[in-house]
Amino acid sequence: MPLWVGEWMSQKGKTFDPGFKLQVVQMIREQGLSVAQVCREMSLGETTVRRWLAQFDVERSGQARIDKPLTANPQRIRHLEAENRQLRQDNDLVKRQRNFFSVNPHEAIRFGKSDHDCKLR
Description:
The chain has helices spanning 3-11, 18-29, 35-42, 46-61, 74-101; strands spanning 108-110, 118-120. It is mostly helical.
């Protein structure tokens, strides 16, 4: 049996940590390294790394994941951020309404310069 076949067979079924997969993907995407170069340096199969790249792209687009996630679920994060924004806006609106309606209509409102020039609403 040729040596390369034995090496390939010994790597079959090898599992990688999602953090490691993400590091490999980032080396390619962010540092501009080629798939072949990263695979040679890290003794990884090109097919495996290309599958990680595809999975990363799917996760980034918010589609259903194919495998264990490489990144936090971006769609869920976007949804929670939008919900958080909406709740903050609603809270601000309620505060403004509370301040607007908390003015007692029987209090004197000044229209002139002195306390004597007050009128009631």
